[in-house]
Amino acid sequence: MTTPREPMPAGGLQAVSFLHLIRIWNLPTALADSYAGYLLAVGPEADDLSAITLLGVMAVSALIYSAGMAWNDILDYDRDKTTHPDRPLPSGAIPKKVAGPFALCLTIAGLVVGAFLGWRVFLLTLALVILMFSYNSWLKHHGFIGCINMGACRFANMWLGIAAAGAALGSSLLPFPATLATYVAAVTLLSLLEDEAVGRGMFYLMVIVLLLAPMMLVADVLKGAASRPEVWFALVPLAVLVGWVGIIAYSAGKKLSAASIGGVVRVCLTGIILLDSAMLMARGKWPQGMLCALLIVPTLLLIKRLARRPRPVSTR
Fold first, then answer.
1. Beta carbons of 275 and 211 less than 8 angstroms apart
2. In this predicted model, what pLDDT tens digit does every residue of 212-226 receive, in sequence order?
3. Please, what are the domains in the chain?
4. For the whole model, what pTM was predicted?
C-alpha cells in the first residue's frame, strides 16, 4: 500500500505545469534532429566542427519546439476544456494570460539565437516558426495536409543543423531530413486514429506505412556497406526502432483504444532519436550516432516521471 504524496508547494506546481506545457519529455527528439543535422554536414575529419555552433543550433531547436507546444495549447484552449481538461491551461494550473507571453518569449529567443548563427539559420528558424503557427492554428485540423505540415516542421528542424554547418539546400544530405519528415508525417497520421473508430487492419497498415521510412534507410545502408563497413552500425538503432514499434503496435492492436494508440504514438516519437542516430551511423559517424542515441535515456526518464503522471491542477 502506497502512502499519499505530500501536497506540492504552489511554486513547484507551476514549475511542473510549465514542463507539461512544453512537453519536456519530447524535447530530446527535437535536439536529436538538429544535432544529427549539424554532424551530418561537417566534414569526415570534423575539422569544421564548432561546439558553440552546435549548442546554439540545438538551443534554437529547443526554444522553437517548446514555443510550438505552448502555442498549441494556447490556440486549443477552448477545445481542450472539453477534450483535455487536465492540461495546464484548461485545468487552471497556468493562466492563459501567463502562457501567451511565455510562448512569445520562447519564440523571440529562438529567432534571436538563430540570427546570431547566420542568415541561413535565421531564415530557417523563421520558416520553422511559420510552419509551427500554420500547423497549430489551422492545418492540424485538416487531416493529411496537417501531417505533411508536421513533417515539414521536422524537416526544417534538421535542416537548421545542416545549414549551421554551411551546407547548401540542394546538397546530397537532402534525403536525411526527407526521411525524417516522411516518418514524422506518418506518425502524425497515426495519431489521428486516437479520435477515430478504426479496425485492426487499418491500424496495422498505418504502422507498416510509418516504418517504411526507417526501412528506406536500411536499404541505403546496405547499398553503402560494401565500401564502408562501419555503416553496418546503423542497423542496430534501426532494428531497435522497428522491433520496439512493432511489439508495442502488436500489443495495442489486440485491444484498440485511444490510450493504446497513444502509447504507440509515444514510442514512435521517442523513436525519432533512434532514426537520427541511424542516419549519423549511415554516414560512417558511429561515435556521434551513439551519443545521439543516448538522448533516449532522458526521454524515457521524463516520460516515466512526468508524461504518465497526473498533471497538476490549480488549487485556486
1. no
2. 888 888 887 777 666
3. 16-307 (1.10.357.140)
4. 0.90
